[in-house]
Amino acid sequence: MTMTTHGSADRASLVAWLTELLGLVRHIEQRYEDKARIESQFPPPKQALKPWGWKGFALSIVVSLLVLSGLLSNLGILSYLIYPLWPAVGIGFPIVWNKVLVPRGNAQRQQSNRELAARMREATSGVDAELEKAGRIYATRFAAGFPEAYVYSDAVAYCLGAVQQHRADTVGQAINLYETERHRQRLEETQERMLEEQQLARRQQAGQAVIGAAIQGATLGAILHGNKRR
Q1: Potential cystine with 162: which of 23, 97, 168, 207 (Cβ 3.0-4.6 Å)?
Q2: SS in 3 state form for the chain?
Q3: Comparing C-alpha atoms, which of 45, 59, 28 is closest to residue 156?
Q4: Which range has the worst mean pLDDT, 160-169, 189-198, 204-213?
Q5: Range in 76-80, 93-97, 141-145 the model is least confident about
Q6: Tens of pLDDT along 195-226?
Q7: Do residues 175 and 150 lie in contact, with contact meaning Cβ atoms separated by under 8 Å?
Q8: How many Å apart are CA 162 and CA 178, to the nearest integer?
Q9: Torsion angle of C-alpha atoms 54, 57, 59, 63, degrees rounded to 10
Q10: pTM across the whole model
Q11: What pLDDT score does 2 carry?
Q12: Spatial separation of the C-alpha atoms in residues 63 and 59, rounded to whole Å
């Protein structure tokens, strides 16, 4: 597709080309929304279990000490025989967690996540096929004439309008106008934010001034009242 126009026929051709591209891009965006909606109906993947570090070992030892202290407080002399076992209990649980429970649990979670991913792929297979087809159409019909960085509906619609309104004769000119417009909007948004911040600062200063004056007045009144009482 040529990027330069020299007459009404060329402009009409470019308008038709951009119109087709806009329809394709909107189709792609809609299909992505459909895919996200389908995927949102599935539960999130299960997170992997994490082994305990030295903090976990220390916490386990402290907890086991407290638990055994409570359990053995009424056993009399037997408590002196069992009590030395608490370090083994405190260290043993984290070891079992790290070496047995975490690998086993993560294997189960990985299998569950693979099954979940397979169900999601099956549920979105139709949408994925449409997206793949749309991608091939873009690659063959539009990739050479329209930059990939601007392949979204707002940019394409602006370029189409610029060509239709005779403000641009090429895709490059239309994109330059689009970037100029975006820059202007960003400047306006920045100025609006600065104005809002200034207005907020003035309101804060006004409130602080009123409160400060009220406090000073109350303090002065209290002093004067106290002097009169004396």
Answers
A1: 168
A2: CCCCCCCHHHHHHHHHHHHHHHHHHHHHHHHHHHHHHHHHCCCCCCCCCCCCCHHHHHHHHHHHHHHHHHHHCCCCCHHHHHHHHHHHHHHHHHHHHHHHHHHHHHHHHHHHHHHHHHHHHHHCHHHHHHHHHHHHHHHHHCCCCCCHHHCCHHHHHHHHHHHHCCCCCCHHHHHHHHHHHHHHHHHHHHHHHHHHHHHHHHHHHHHHHHHHHHHHHHHHHHHHHHHHHC
A3: 28
A4: 204-213
A5: 76-80
A6: 677 766 666 665 565 555 555 655 545 554 55
A7: yes
A8: 9
A9: -170
A10: 0.64
A11: 44
A12: 6
Q: Give the tens place of pLDDT for each residue, 84-101.
A: 665 666 677 778 888 888
Cβ neighbour number for residue 59 with a 10 Å cutoff: 13
Give the per-residue pLDDT at 194: 73
Distance CA 230, CA 218 (A): 18
Query: Which sequence spans correspond to the domains of the chain?
Result: 8-169
